Amino acid sequence: MSGHSKWATIKHKKGAADKARAKVFNKIARQLEVAAREGGPDPSANASLRTVILKAKAAQMTNDAIDRAVKRGAGMNDGGNYESITYEGYGPGGVAMLIDVLTDNRNRTSADVRNIFNKLGGSMAEPGAVGWQFSRRGVIYVTGGDEDTVMMAALEAGADDVAADGEGFKVTSEPSVVYEVRDALQAAGLTVASAESTMVSSVTIDVTDADDARKILRIMDALDDNDDVQDVYSNFDISEELMEAVSG
């Protein structure tokens, strides 16, 4: 795996699972509120809400928790008034970072993100400076299995490409079908390590310096730990060996 997907996998293995899950649920709940507020509470008529609901279910969020968040967004229960903002920045070695936030206080969040970059060796970028290289894709990582089985199940379900990745395979698709492709792969008896609609960069930066790698992971970790930050996307690639060495 490359970039933030590999980082997230290692962090999940090393971190406190329950604490990490609670933080993920809080962030998804905020996304559900915003999607329901902007497009209505009916997922059949609100594609954005439908996508977030699928993300919530993939994270094993309960139906009751999903329903409560949707109702808050639709004004049926008290909820927050969140604004969607995307920040752009650079990590060590010119690594690009795209940060999606939902906040009820733009000034607070902007200061928090800027402080993280300043303290940990990165820098904020002007709007558009790095965003041009990112596009939304469905990305699924499959561990094990053989290429023919993965290829057949993925392409029949609507995936665009299958490529070898370490000991498994990276499957890419349109973001709208990522969960359908995941289900097809699982139905074929394959193990899906992760499946998400994410932002993928057209430019990849290989990071081989341990100090740079450590700083990049610290920035990613600090951003992810901020409650207002929903997703962090980056274009770094760090080898499995270096990733394990610096993430302890």
Verbal overview:
47% of the residues lie in helices and 25% in strands. It is globular and about 50 Å long. It has a four-stranded antiparallel β-sheet. It has a four-stranded antiparallel β-sheet with strand order 5-6-4-7. With 248 residues, the protein is α+β, with helices and mostly antiparallel strands. It contains nine helices and ten strands. The two termini are 18 Å apart. The chain folds into three domains: 3-73, Arc Repressor Mutant, subunit A; 83-132 and 203-240, YebC, transcriptional regulation domain (Alpha-Beta Plaits), CATH 3.30.70.980; 133-201, Alpha-Beta Plaits. A hairpin with a 2-residue loop joins β5 and β6 (168-173). The chain has helices at residues 3-14, 17-39, 47-58, 63-73, 106-120, 147-156, 178-187, 210-225, 240-246; strands at residues 83-90, 96-103, 123-125, 134-143, 161-165, 168-173, 191-201, 205-206, 229-234, 236-237. The model has no long low-confidence stretch (mean pLDDT 86).
Span between termini: 18 Å
- Roughly what is the average pLDDT, rounded to an integer? 86
- CATH fold category name of the largest domain: Alpha-Beta Plaits
Major sheet description: 4 strands, antiparallel
By secondary-structure content and strand pairing, the structural class works out as alpha+beta
The best one-word shape is globular
CATH architecture of the largest domain: 2-Layer Sandwich
Count of alpha and pi helical runs: 9
CATH level-1 class of the largest domain? Alpha Beta
CATH superfamily label of the largest domain: YebC, transcriptional regulation domain
Number of domains: 3
| Low-confidence segments | none
The ordered string of helix (H) and strand (E) elements is: HHHHEEHEEHEEHEEHEEH
Question: What is the strand tally?
Answer: 10
Strand order of the largest sheet: 3-1-2-9
Radius of gyration: 18 Å
* Strand fraction: 15-25%
Helix coverage percent: 40-55%
